[in-house]
Amino acid sequence: MGQFFLNRSFIASLCVGLVLVAHAGLSAAPPIDFARDVRPILSEKCFHCHGPDAATRQADLRLDQVESAARVLDHSHGDVSELLSRITTHDSDQRMPPADARKQLTVEQVDTLVRWIESGAPYAGHWSFSTAMRSELPSAISEPWCLNPVDAFVLDALQHSQRVPSSQSPPATLLRRVHLDLTGLPPSIDEQSRFLVSAAEIGSDVAYGQLIERLMASPRYAEHMALPWLEAARFADTDGYQNDRYRYQHAWRDWVLRAYSENMPYDQFVIEQVAGDMLPEATLWQQVASGFGRNHRINSEDGSIPEEWLVENVVDRVDTVGTVFLGLTVGCARCHDHKYDPISQREYYQLFAYFNNIAEHGVGPNNGNSPPFVELPKSWPLISAAENRAMQPAPVVLKAAREGSGNGLMRPQPGSPGTVMVMHELSEPRETYLLVRGQYNLPDKSMPLSPDVPKFLKASPQNASPQNSARPTNRLELARWLVSPQNPLTARVAVNRIWQQFFGTGLVESSENFGSQGTAPSHPALLDWLADELVDSGWDVRHVQRLILHSATYRQSSQSTAELLARDPQNRWLARGPRRRLPAFVLRDQALAVSGLLVEQLGGPSVKPYMPADIWSSISNNKYEQDTGDKLFRRSLYTYWRRTIPPPTMMNFNAAAREVCTVRTELTNTPLQALTLMNNVIFIETAKKLAERGLAAGASDSTMQIEFCFQACTGRKPSRDELRLLQSAHSAFHVAYSQSPDAARELLSASGDAHYDTNLNAVDLASMTMTASLIMNLDETVTKE
Question: What is the reported pTM?
């Protein structure tokens, strides 16, 4: 082992030497940018020992602050600065980072730091902690390819990296892409025909613009936009933890649908969810909106300590607000100062103080909503938006939500399905203290803490001014601060998630982390320009969406080349259009839509569609009571979500578990996904019904029948070769079922409520069912191109 370290030390020293020898020949390298090139290295390799966290800081040195770093960057007393000496020395005992830290610098990283130090070691604040500045449009805006300012920023970056954009997608591909992106459903064959006719009559650009407006006005748009927000807001139909009791929170989901239907300004969207209950003369809808803060898990196990779970509830709210609005991992500061971002443990509990005054018990009831909650009118939600806004606020029920030791206290009397959990302030605020090591029973009572936001967010040079020095003193003021000019993060985080929804990856890939450990934006000027556009438009989300959808960047073909894949496999430079497997919810909804089974009904309680038999028996005595009829075929948005056993089909395709706030999930490809699409009951049912539609559309012509099924799924007609292969498969299925008609009848009578037309020939329908299933499993069908 000793020999190994000796050799590694020798090799590292040799590499460093080679870098220094070769350094003179690197004058043609691009200039060093601190935020892009240097800070990520310092954050990854140095901040653990020389960063914000006092507990792990060594030598009283902070390399995240220019004032502290100056003493190791100064070379007035020697030929080289201390930092330059430490990263290039041959002495393994002196070299930084230490050999045993497992954070050794690569040759390229050493070269970057050397060039940075030799250029004067200029520092810059972390890019996301300063106010977004609207950049001048690049000169590329005059290029014919550019359709709007989004394209100017993208083309400018492509030109600097010696890349060229791809050609525009064919109309049929673009039609399907925008349908899936705005509604989560594919265009029907009739919609495909109407769009192509309209494009020929009034021009493709005008027809495309009208298409976007029509889709945004559809209830389908609100349902699709709500899905990522439900995952970020950790919405579920049960409390979580081992008991996982039932709760009734669907009225809050109705509020989200209403907000997207009405194109509610994003600043209002934020304020009402964080503090709608505190607004002057808050309406019932605004109180319901505050249910965002009650979507967290609630423990109801016997023996649970209310004080402990009160703390966990507040921690969840702080961490959720930190992630979903600020894009920061504030939860890292619960037990100690944040090791990478300038958030102290004290500042964490000052944020905690904003959410520590909710009149809740800590431990939930056996089943049902935990106070505070409001009663809903019997007509909910089948009343107009105007009536809802005018409705008088309902009284908040606070049963058993008093404070106390928790020992011997009665559980709350639970809320019924006609209620919704909301936020509600105590008349006398709880005192907040820093919790030692984050433990609920170890408060540091030497000093009560007042609510406040982290100092770095209100004291950055670009934000400093007398009018924004005042701190928000309560939850409503915090909500307003989140969307104020004082806060540099909320608009950036919001537009980044809009971009992520359309392209699969945000301009900042780590959409949950805009801090020093997060990824740098691929197009920082574009991100800031879009953030500024969002604010200047009155926080109009659809305005930003239109800019993206109308851009040539979005309309590019997603087809790639070997060169593009080699140089930019993740498409971070946006030299081609977005291509990504459909999300879990869209896969199921698309199958329902093309089969004609989809039942469209906006809002209301969750439904229980097909699930594996006895799915809940492994964790409880509760039985999954599957719905029947239309409820089986509603959009996946409304599927009942039990936290301990979420819908397996959704989880197979990377849906968030809804345990905590999730704004980005990893994309996986597994054999189980293919098996699900081929064998799951809902996909067999939809294949049957699509086959029925194909048989009806093609009369006795199998070619027309196959063409119908293919076009319904992919948005285009099959090529000659594709049709030949599908005809061959269909013929093979037909021969097999002709020889075994019992197998055909067995396929058609498999479990499910979507009964097929008994007047149809079983062999014909079974053969076309298998062909339809094949088409529904094509890569092109399950992918947005």
Answer: 0.90
Torsion of CA 285, 287, 292, 298, to 10 degrees: -130
Contact residues for 500 (Cβ-Cβ < 8 A; gap 6+): 506, 511, 664
For residue 244 the two structure tokens come to 């996982």
- Assess contact for 83 and 46: CB atoms under 8 A: no
Q: What is the dihedral of CA 231, 232, 233, 237, to 10 degrees?
A: 10
Mean local confidence (pLDDT), 659-678: 95
Phi, psi of 432 (to 5 degrees): -115, 135
* CA separation, residue 577 to residues 498, 561, 570, 571 (Å): 16, 12, 11, 8
User: Encoding tokens for residue 714?
Assistant: 């992919």
Count of C-beta atoms within a 10 Å radius of residue 307 = 15
CA 100 and chain centroid, separation: 37
Q: How many CB atoms lie within 10 A of CB 706?
A: 24
Which amino acid is residue 349, in one-letter code?
Y
Strands 396-397 and 373-375: antiparallel
Token reading at 587: 């896969």
Q: What is the pLDDT, as a whole number, of residue 32? A: 86
Residue type, 9: S
The average pLDDT across 429-446 equals 96
Question: Tokens 């969207």 appear where?
Answer: 269
User: Is 124's pLDDT higher than 50?
Assistant: yes
**Spatial separation of the C-alpha atoms in residues 117 and 38, rounded to whole Å:** 10
Q: DSSP 3-state helix, strand, coil percentages of the chain (rounded to 5)?
A: 50, 5, 45
In this structure, is the dihedral angle defined by the CA atoms of residues 484, 488, 492 and 493, taken in order, positive or negative? negative
Nearest-angstrom CA–CA distance, 20 and 39: 21
Residue type, position 23, single letter: H
Both tokens of 363, joined, read 């431990």
Angle CA 82–85–87, to nearest 5: 110
Is residue 692 within 8 A of residue 756, CB to CB? The reply is yes
CA atoms within 13 A on the CB side of 493: 29
- Cβ atoms of 421 and 249 within 8 Å: the answer is yes
* Residue pair 75/87 in contact by the 8 Å Cβ criterion: no
Q: Choose among 135, 148, 225, 229: nearest CA to 183.
A: 225
Residue 41 has pLDDT above 50, yes or no: yes
Helix (H, G, I), strand (E, B) or coil at 754: coil
> What confidence tens digit (pLDDT) does each residue in 321-358 have?
999 999 999 999 999 999 999 999 999 999 999 999 99
Residue given tokens 């399907």 in the structure block: 176
Task: Evaluate the omega torsion of the peptide bond into residue 448 and state whether it is cis, within 30 degrees of 0.
Answer: no
